[in-house]
Amino acid sequence: MIIVMKQNASQEAIEKVVSTITSCGLSTHLSKGEEVTIIGVIGDKSRLNTQAIEGLQAVDKIVPITESYKLANKKFHPEPTSVSVRNTTIGPDTMTIMAGPCAVETEEQLMCIAKAVKKSGATILRGGAFKPRTSPYSFQGLEEDGLKFMQTACAETGLAGICEVTSIHAVELATKYVDMLQVGARNMQNFELLKEVGKTKHPVLLKRGLCATVDEWLNAAEYIMSEGNPNVVLCERGIRTYETATRNTLDLSAVCVLKEKTHLPVIVDPSHATGVRSYVEPLAKAAVACGADGLMIEVHNDPAHALSDGPQSLTFEQFDSVMTNLKPYVALTGRK
């Protein structure tokens, strides 16, 4: 439930409500607007004497929350959240571009790509050091060596770095080298992994599971946030349907749904969604138009020989063209 305070309620009145709630063994989450404060109640609500709360002079009303996710819920936190990643911000006023190879292959390759994507306007370098692959015989990533290459490329270019983590061991390593952790689609409901990234102070990009509903996705975000990490960004990357023309089916309606349900930033990955480089630009434009806060785009110096996801990776020239062609769409949304 949430407790809506009356306009311009005093700090003393807010603290009295919070004290009443915590004395019942529950915890609170405060969201302060310019005029109204909302107090979210977290825990077993049967312990709370709601009549006593309603009787407090500065309380306007109590609103029940039916959804199982609380901290990620827009009712708890009406204002949109911005997440800082090194020297960039993901939120309602910006269009954040994450770009780079699906998999880190060599230090020279990554440095070359990092310089190219930065020149075209990306602010976050993506690169996989741990690769969960369908086949056990496919390239699995360079692990710590790949992370070291990420750290070097980011130090050289000033870009922030993001890398997928697939295990608790990977989390322990990645937090030493990159600025943001990514939980991939296959691990969206790996609850022990979600708890582990929630215990870190690193921002987390949470991709939607292959067959996950929006509510399941938001409950996965709740796992991270309930461990004390509020810096979660959601990424729509396509879901599995009966259609085979593309790798997955990009659900752009999810962006609109999420904007109503959660305060968390939402970005779109048109590369993994389609698996086809020629579809990346039109769907990137559509994602910007429907309210996404950013894009994740795969870029490679030699897609034909990429060790992972070459068919969906853009060349430097193609990425630069996409970034140029996106500018009018970004401007129309009032973002930078």
Describe this protein's structure:
The protein is α/β, with parallel strands linked by helices. It folds into two domains: 62 residues, 2-Layer Sandwich (Alpha-Beta Plaits), CATH 3.30.70.1140; 250 residues, TIM Barrel, CATH 3.20.20.70. Helix content is 34%, strand content 18%. The chain contains eleven helices and 14 strands. Strands 7-8-9-10-11-12-13-14 form an eight-stranded parallel β-barrel, surrounded by six helices. Strands 2-3-1-4 form a four-stranded antiparallel β-sheet. A two-stranded antiparallel sheet has the order 5-6. Helix 4 links the parallel strand 8 and strand 9. Helix 3 runs parallel beside helix 11, helix 6 crosses helix 7 and helix 10 packs parallel to helix 11. The radius of gyration is 21 Å and the shape is elongated. The protein starts with a strand and ends with a helix. The mean pLDDT is 94.
What general form does the structure show?
A: elongated
Tell me the number of structural domains: 2
Q: CATH class of the largest domain, please?
A: Alpha Beta
Which residues sit in consecutive blocks of at least 5 with pLDDT less than 50? none
Q: Care to count the β-strands?
A: 14
Report the span from N to C terminus. 36 Å
Oligomeric state, counting identical vs distinct chains:
single chain
Kindly report the spatial arrangement of strands forming the biggest sheet. 7-8-9-10-11-12-13-14
User: On the 0-100 scale, what is the average pLDDT?
Assistant: 94
Q: What is the H-and-E element order?
A: EHEEHEEEEHEHEHEHEHEHEHHEH
Figure out the total of helices. 11
Gross CATH architecture of the largest domain: Alpha-Beta Barrel
Provide the CATH topology of the largest domain.
TIM Barrel
Biggest pleated-sheet summary:
8 strands, parallel, barrel
Return Rg in Å: 21 Å
> Structural class, from secondary structure content?
alpha/beta
CATH superfamily of the largest domain: Aldolase class I
**What proportion strand?**
15-25%
- Helix fraction, binned, reads 25-40%
